[in-house]
Structure formats: C-alpha cells, structure tokens
Design brief:
Distance between the termini: 51 Å
Helix content: over 70%
Number of helices: 13
Shape: globular
Order of helices and strands: HHHHHHHHHHHHH
CATH architecture of the largest domain: Orthogonal Bundle
Largest sheet: none
Mean pLDDT: 87
Structural class: mainly alpha
CATH class of the largest domain: Mainly Alpha
Radius of gyration: 19 Å
Strand content: under 5%
Length: 222
C-alpha cells in the first residue's frame, strides 16, 4: 500500500467505505459478483485509491466477510451453558460453526481457505477498528475468538485444552486436529457445490458431528 495525505481518521473512513460497498455487493449477489470496478464505483473512489488502502481485493473481500464470522462467535457465547466442560465446548462450537458455514459456504470458504486465510486475525482487528460500533457490541471473549488466527490454530487451542487431561499425546492432538480440519473442508466444498435448504444444512452438520465425535473417541481409545 502506498502513502496517503489523509489523517488516520480519514484513511479509516475511506477503508470503511470500500468495506461497506463490498459487503453490500456480497449480500445482494454473492462473493463472485465482487470486482474492483464495482466496489470502487459503489464506494465513490477510484480503483487506484483502493490499492492505497488494501493489499489486494482478497484482503478487502476477507475484511468484508468478518461480520459473518461475528454472528457465529455471538451464537457460541450466547448459548454457553453453565459448568460446560472443554470437551463439551469443543463439540458445541463445531456444531454452531458448521450451521453457519454450511448455510454460507462461499463466505466461510473465503475466510478460512482463501488467499488471506492466514491473516484473518489481523484483518479482524482492523475491521473492528474501522467499525468500532460493532466492537462495542461484542464482548471481550468474542473479540478474542475472532482474533485467534487460522481455523487450524483455533481448533488446536481447544483440543489442547482438554486433550492432555484425557490422555491424548501431543501427536494424537496434532493428528486429530489435522484430520478434523481436512474433514470439515470436504464438507464445506460439498456445501459450496449445492444449494442447501435449512434441512440440508442440519443434515450435513449432523453428519460432520458424527465424524468429529468418532475422531475424538478414536483418540481417547488409543
């Protein structure tokens, strides 16, 4: 990104305009409808200006999808039961994550397997800097979830929180993590190729959860 003559506040306002324009296009027509020309026109700035503020279109699109991730994190926190075990939280989190991901597969594919998936945590931080009103509605725990890094890193943190207590070795935990993430991706790709109804989303989520539970039981049995 190049230099700008604008103040930090003005720069953030320009970035926010690009993000809002991108979000509107995605909401109306999907991720594939996003283009430099359309976003720039809707935001009221030139295409050249866009590249002063974003590394590329992938970064802009990823930032525009963060609000979808916020809805997932909000559901996780709002449904937390008392005295939940780490293992219970792990399974509940995956079920909620799948419900959101399979209902909006192209969005979650872009977030967690797209060109900027390695940078989601930093992009989420910047998003809430641009839209502080959304950060104010989010709890500290929710923001921590959104800024935790890649999907693999997020899953590994939770697995480690209870895996060792159940007798998992570091190798078991790492393998269970890798298999779960690969397993999820295959389901997400399947969802991307189909137009799923609410019933289809639930059925796909139930099927994934059976596999995730099987992986845990296999690791526990070793």
């Amino acid at each position: 990104m190049g230099r700008s003559k604008y103040s930090p506040e003005a720069r953030n306002a320009i970035m926010a305009a690009f993000v809002k324009a991108t979000k509107e296009i995605i909401a109306a027509e999907g991720v594939d409808a996003v283009s430099i020309r359309r976003v720039s026109s809707a935001a009221g700035y030139s295409s050249a200006t866009l590249y002063l503020y974003f590394e590329d279109m992938n970064e802009l699109v990823t930032m525009s999808l963060i609000s979808d991730l916020s809805a997932y994190a909000r559901d996780i926190i709002n449904t937390t039961p008392e005295n939940e075990t780490p293992r219970g939280e792990y399974l509940r989190s995956w079920r909620i994550f799948c419900n959101h991901a399979f209902a909006n597969p192209s969005v979650f594919l872009g977030l967690f397997y797209g060109p900027q998936s390695h940078n989601v945590d930093a992009i989420a931080k910047k998003y809430y800097e641009l839209f502080p009103e959304e950060a104010e509605r989010a709890s500290g725990r929710m923001l921590n979830m959104l800024e935790r890094g890649t999907l693999s890193a997020r899953n590994l943190v939770v697995l480690e929180s209870f895996g060792h207590d159940l007798g998992f070795s570091d190798e078991d935990i790492s393998l269970a993590n890798d298999l779960t993430i690969a397993y999820f991706r295959s389901f997400l790709m399947d969802a991307c190729e189909r137009n799923l109804s609410e019933e289809d989303v639930q059925a796909l989520t139930d099927r994934f959860m059976k596999g995730a539970l099987f992986l845990l039981r296999t690791s526990e049995a070793e």
